[in-house]
Amino acid sequence: MAALSRYVICEEVARVVRRLGINPQERGDATAVSGSPDIVELDDGSFAIIGTDITDQIGTQPLGDARCAADERIVRISRAALMSAKKDIPDS
After folding, report:
1. Burial 17-55 (b: 16+ CB within 10 A, else e)
2. For the chain, which residues score pLDDT lower than 50?
3. Is 68 exposed, middle or buried (0-12, 13-18, 19+ CB in 10 A)?
4. What was the pLDDT predicted at 20?
5. 82 neighbors 61 (Cβ within 8 angstroms)
6. What is the pLDDT of residue 40?
7. Residue 65: exposed, middle, or buried by beta-carbon count in 10 A (0-12, 13-18, 19+)?
8. What is the pLDDT of residue 1?
9. Closest CA relative to residue 68, chosen from 81, 53, 79
10. CB 85 within 8 A of CB 21
11. Residue 53 CB contacts under 8 Å (≥ 6 apart), including other chains
12. Contacts 24+ apart (CB under 8 A), 47-54
């Protein structure tokens, strides 16, 4: 079994436990230069998104009731990444 990835979130170490959807190569979303959009589940039950940071392009308040805190970023993922993850997203 491959080693689990580690991310620091809110000063706690979180581990990636699984990918949602199919891998980027299977979706045709992977590039050797820019990386690959992905959605992963963490061991605390939360999710993380790997995508292109677009915060500077669309601003920190893209909607009247949606905004980024100082420690948040807005990322873009492909439609294919989100659609392939749909089957793996729990209902509750």
Report:
1. eebbbeebeebebeeeeeebbbbbbbeeeeebbbbeeee
2. 1-3, 7-8
3. middle
4. 94
5. no
6. 94
7. exposed
8. 39
9. 53
10. yes
11. 73, 74, 75
12. 47/20, 48/7, 48/9, 48/14, 48/16, 49/75, 49/77, 50/75, 50/77, 51/75, 51/76, 51/77, 51/81, 52/76, 52/77
Burial class (CB in 10 A: 0-12, 13-18, 19+), 84: buried
Give every CB contact of residue 59 below 8 A, 6+ residues apart in sequence. Answer: none
Q: Which two tokens stand for residue 61?
A: 């308040």
